[in-house]
Amino acid sequence: MEIEQFYDIFLKSNKICIDSRNVELTDLFFAFSVDTFNAAMQEKNAIEQGALALIVEDRKFEEISDQIFYVPFTLLFFH
User: Is residue 19 predicted with pLDDT exceeding 70?
Assistant: First the structure.
């Protein structure tokens, strides 16, 4: 995902969320990952809770939904 694509989604969003348990309608969910946990695994919950879009760094999740967008480094893209 390029920043230009993201900007349109960002403008439509309610807020940015980094905890899948707190996702609300039209939030942007950034799925940060560490060695022991991949937040992208929570993609189904985030979509069901109304996330407008999910930003993930695991390309395999991008094919699950058109609401999921791959970036090489979630933290870098977040900044």
Answer: yes
